[in-house]
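Per reviewer request, we include the raw input and output of the structure prediction for the construct analysed in the revised manuscript.
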Amino acid sequence: MKQEKKDIGSFRFEELKEEMTSIGEKAFRAKQVYEWLHVKLVRSFDEMTNLSKPLREKLARQYEIREVEMLDRQVSAMDGTNKFLFRLSDGHVVESVLMKYKHGNSVCISSQVGCRMGCRFCASTIGGLERNLTPSEMLGQIYQIQRISGERVANVVVMGTGEPLDNYENLLKFIQMLTDEHGLHISQRNVTVSTCGIVPKMLELAEEHLQITLALSLHGSTQEKRKKLMPVANKYELSEVLEACDIYFAKTGRRMTFEYSLVHGVNDTEEDAKELSALLNAMDYNAELPKTILYCLNAKDNEMLASMAGNFQDGSCKGKVQFGAAWWFLDQKRGMEAQLDVLSQIGLLSAFVGMLTDSRSFLSFPRHEYFRRILCNYIGTLVENGEYPADMEFLGQMVENICYNNAMEYFGF
């Protein structure tokens, strides 16, 4: 019976040392192999030229380097943002995004093939969960993007397909390897992980005392509202989730980010607004309010959400509570213009984090180009009406901030 080869790219540095000694090699070989894999980013053992040929052949017989192959790539002509479709070794595909900023490149990666969380507003869960990604497959998305772009990745966001904490062990190993001094050595503060609120894993992650940012998909200010949108709420009470957030902050010193999307007829009533405002107010009163982004699916809620966002600005950061970009049904010209108009009227436009990357669908990429054109046209109209100064340097910086810099500062990229 043919022995299955081990995934050498998923071994931590210390684990690789043990592997080398287990096959009769000196422990120092681990440093050489690890550097080839995670610094020089080679894709075959033959490229490890400081190893003897017999050792390279031995490694090839017992181990495999799992390839992440690019199937498709879309590149923004405006700002260089790239969207990738990658094929894994078993034929499954995942998506990743490269976002370019003047202070470094950020990558959004997937953690699972599909998702089993069942959130009603997310397309990733439509086909259910196929399987978890291994640490090497998560790292492979970053490595392949570095190879293709020829540029170093400075920030990583685990917000693509999948629920990261549902793949906890592999996620944790991925973070450890990504930030290991023997590998790319990306700062933990430059890593963001999203979750729908798996409480035991949030608490477990807090005990690791990592310096990553944890982002919570809130989407409901009461337990019943969350149940309608997120099946995970049938298992974990909202009070448990918020308590886990407090514990995470207490253990790590790292503030969290909240996201709240309005779904028509589910969590967008006046009563919902009062409940959400009361929740945010209670957290703000106790100095526990994290950065929060509020989204809506109905333009009638624009003024309400923009006003609510304006009520919770404490000076700790620009635009701490955000009225998020026009989304889903409002993801069209009129919807975007209406949202920009409300932000401008309320006085929040300059601090707006803009159109955030949407990795749910490969075809969603053109939204970013569309948004930037609509934004520039909207600001141009304000100038023509005499509402904004005809100062191209000022206006250019404002557009750049909304499209790039504000998000970079907000998320700590």
